[in-house]
Automatic annotation (TrEMBL), chains A, B:
ACT domain mapped to chain residues: 205-282
Catalytic activity entry: prephenate + H(+) = 3-phenylpyruvate + CO2 + H2O
Keyword tRNA processing recorded: no
Classification via PROSITE patterns: ACT (PS51671), PREPHENATE_DEHYDR_2 (PS00858), PREPHENATE_DEHYDR_3 (PS51171)
Coiled coil, from the record: none
Highest taxon in the source lineage: Bacteria
Name the record gives this protein: Prephenate dehydratase
Span of domain Prephenate dehydratase: 4-185
Annotated organism of origin: Metabacillus sediminis
Pathway in which this enzyme or protein is active: Amino-acid biosynthesis; L-phenylalanine biosynthesis; phenylpyruvate from prephenate: step 1/1
Any Pfam family hit: PDT
Database matches in Gene3D superfamilies: 3.30.70.260, Periplasmic binding protein-like II
EC numbers on record: 4.2.1.51
Length: 286, 286
């Protein structure tokens, strides 16, 4: 069976790299220019699944994805792809011999942040120009040979847009991975099988507190802790209703069951918390 | 006495607006092009204090400030300025009558995110171009009248760079404030007095956990909760050492004392946590 999979484009973004790495030829791949457009596409049925970046080990959550999921387009996470991120420095082939003289660096803001120290040391005076994705940055420099610019992007981008990699692995921290969420309107939908990958159980829960008291968050964590439901992540994001109002995203290293997680959720609701299970799914590691 | 205050420039950024609102004429204001440059300036003594954005009510923490503070330049927070953020849409005066036809929106990524819904409805096809600050975006459009572009920035930017405001208050959420941190190398340094402002006590603490167990974070919160030390914020950020490794920033609505906060810190250290008080200071509300 062939699936249509939407991803954050253009071609050769890290999302595209993740999709290609896991799915090989069994699917049709459709790029979308922005994260919201990609998420809207699966909501209206233009694609079977959408894949967008969710969290990077260095830069943290991709706020646009999290906020759009929580406030605008309530999809479910039905799977997760985890891939290592290697950032390379590349230029238009015409500039291969003079790459150390570029006066502008083009990339996604996360990629520039991930190479902050390298850029600070090697190109202290270069201007930074932010693109919507590393793929879009590579596309821009490929079609603007007049710009004296370098790009930070992945190997696939160099191939697709015909750029020359002049320095490999310029990211500051070696342990750099990104999580990509597989999204679908229905919580019970299963993504295409990935032969050869086993997957780890994970459940993502969003919790809003009834008040800003430290006591309540403490109670929330108690509900998981005494059941030995191990959290692999807790992250706060503003509610957009005022400074100091947060919601929390909590990842549990457990599949949804019929006793423990529902019991914790019921307890939290009885405390006055808002609770929403964003998904219970498998995380696959490349 | 006159102080030299460094801020995230160029002229007319929201940081500049905050500095001007609180300090009037008593200080010399020195713009820096980036957050790290601004923080380095106070570390080496080029300025007496540096002021940079720390957290926005809509978009959350300014990751670059938090990460640079934690990983690169260990300054102390000695005060905080809180100002409402109003985003306006402006264009080069030559385009005042045809502003609805712009095909490009230039601004800081947070400002674009804060006006996401407005832009999606009014300029669905316009390209987004990201600048280092709203001030830099306004400066760019002011000096590039050939670009068919609109800018999202504040009132001060329209004045300073001679742009025409064509639509006011285009931010999606009305309760929009930003916190700006006043930074200094010494924790005991007091910022210039602000006559007419009272200020609220606040202490910011960074905590790293000894392991990724939900139990430990639960214990950390217990140490504050049973002492009735109220948290106004808890936020997680990746440690940059791997997916799932976080540090936590905790704001307490209390001034540093000699018993309760030191007692909690000692307990956390005994549990194996790393604890660092980033500052105990007054937060001033415009």
């Amino acid at each position: 069976m062939s699936y249509r999979i939407g991803f954050l484009g253009p071609k050769a973004t890290f999302t595209h790299l993740a999709v290609s790495k896991f799915f090989h030829e069994q699917i049709e791949q459709i790029p979308y220019a922005t994260i919201p457009a990609c998420m809207d596409a699966v909501a209206v049925g233009d694609v079977d699944f959408s894949i967008v970046p969710l969290e990077n080990a260095i830069e943290g959550s991709v706020n646009l994805t999290v906020d759009y999921l929580v406030h605008e387009q309530p999809l479910h996470i039905v799977g997760e792809l985890v891939v290592p991120i290697n950032q390379h420095f590349m230029v238009h082939p015409d500039r291969e011999s003079s790459w150390q003289q570029v006066d502008k660096i083009v990339s996604h803001s996360h990629a520039i942040a991930q190479c902050h120290r390298y850029l600070h040391n090697e190109f202290p005076l270069a201007e930074h120009s932010y693109a919507a994705s590393t793929g879009a940055a590579a596309q821009f420099v490929s079609t603007h040979p007049g710009e004296n610019a370098g790009v930070i992007a992945n190997e696939m981008a160099a191939e697709v847009y015909g750029l020359s990699i002049v320095k490999r692995d310029i990211h500051d921290y070696h342990y750099n991975h990104t999580l990509f969420a597989i999204l679908h309107p229905s919580a019970s939908e299963k993504p295409p099988t990935l032969p050869g990958y086993e997957g780890k159980d994970k459940t993502t829960i969003m919790v809003t507190l009834p008040s800003n008291q430290s006591g309540t968050l403490h109670q929330v964590l108690s509900a998981f802790a005494w059941r030995k439901l191990n959290m692999s992540k807790i992250e706060s994001r503003p509610m957009k209703t005022g400074l100091g109002n947060y919601f929390f995203l909590i990842d549990l290293e457990h599949a949804m069951d019929s006793v423990l997680i529902p019991g914790a959720v019921n307890e939290l609701e009885a405390l006055g918390c808002g609770v929403k299970v964003l998904g219970s799914y498998k995380a696959f590691y490349a």
